[in-house]
Design goal:
- It is a single chain.
- This protein is of the alpha/beta class and 266 residues long.
- It folds into two domains: 73 residues; 160 residues, no CATH class.
- It has nine helices and eight strands.
- Helix 3 crosses helix 4 and helix 4 crosses helix 9.
- The longest helix has 25 residues.
- The protein starts with 11 loop residues before the first helix and ends with a helix.
- Keywords: Metal-binding.
- This is Transposase family protein.
- Its cofactor is a divalent metal cation.
């Protein structure tokens, strides 16, 4: 079997966080001998999350023999990372120290959705014309991740998802200013959204155009929301989340694990 070296952009800080967690876990369980050190196991896990490497490729690249060993290494690390992910309450405490935050939703596509009995319909997003899960992302004004919500079926509207997770109520209760797109219209006084296109003109049958001042307000608002879009793009730079191939029931663990590494990287 032939192999070749490959490159991967990864933060040494993120690797250090995972390595320390694995080392502490091994000491707690008094695990005897393993073929990979905590540092090498952390690198294996990040390679899977960052590059979407298959179990067989990882087993070959790290010389651990079988893909079942890779599976155990991954499950152990993903459980640790998911447990380290912040809760909404912890994220709100961080957000209280910011001038404002950005709230945005994104769809993470998913493959393994059962088609029987219409189970897949809840995961089908009419906007994106694809199956996926909806996650709500909170970012700070300079584009650093604050929180990623647990996933909901992709058919859920962003506003409904934000309310279900308690994001809107938390921002209102703590008076944290937020910027969002028009999907969050009606979220309350703390969530600023762009000016919407005016209603139909009964005389011409066309939509009334926005005034120059309203267009300027929308452009300024778009610049304010820009860092949040970059966080969504960075989230999808983790190739394992570009198209989730596991069961929807395990998508939450993957997202939480990636969230922990992204926050450690900031």
């Amino acid at each position: 079997m032939l192999s070749y070296p490959s490159g991967m952009t990864v933060s040494s800080r993120a690797l250090g966080v995972l390595s320390d967690a694995l080392r502490a876990h091994r000491n707690q369980r008094r695990t005897r001998w393993r073929k990979l050190s905590p540092g090498r196991q952390a690198l294996l896990v990040v390679a899977h999350l960052r590059k979407g490497e298959t179990y067989a490729d990882l087993a070959c690249g790290f010389r651990v023999g079988t893909s079942s060993t890779v599976y155990r290494y991954l499950r152990e690390a993903l459980d640790l990372l998911a447990a380290m992910a912040p809760t909404l309450e912890q994220a709100i405490e961080v957000a209280k120290g910011k001038a404002s935050v950005i709230v945005d939703g994104t769809l993470l596509r998913i493959d393994r959705v059962g088609m029987a009995c219409g189970y897949d319909r809840a995961f089908y997003s009419g906007k994106h014309k694809a199956h996926g899960v909806n996650v709500q992302v909170i970012a700070d004004p300079v584009g650093r991740l604050v929180w990623i919500s647990p996933p909901l079926p992709g058919a859920r509207h962003d506003m409904g998802a934000a309310r279900e997770h308690g994001i809107i109520d938390a921002l209102t209760a703590h008076e944290i200013p937020a910027a969002a797109d028009t999907a969050y219209q009606g979220a309350g006084p703390m969530v600023a959204v762009p000016q919407r296109r005016r209603r139909l003109d009964p005389d011409t049958g066309r939509y009334r155009r926005l005034s120059r001042n309203q267009k300027e307000v929308n452009r300024a608002h778009a610049r304010r929301r820009g860092p949040g879009e970059r966080v969504n793009a960075e989230l999808k730079n983790w190739k394992v989340l570009r198209r989730i191939r596991s069961s929807p029931n395990r998508a939450g663990q993957l997202i939480a694990a990636v969230q922990t590494l992204m926050i450690a990287n900031d």
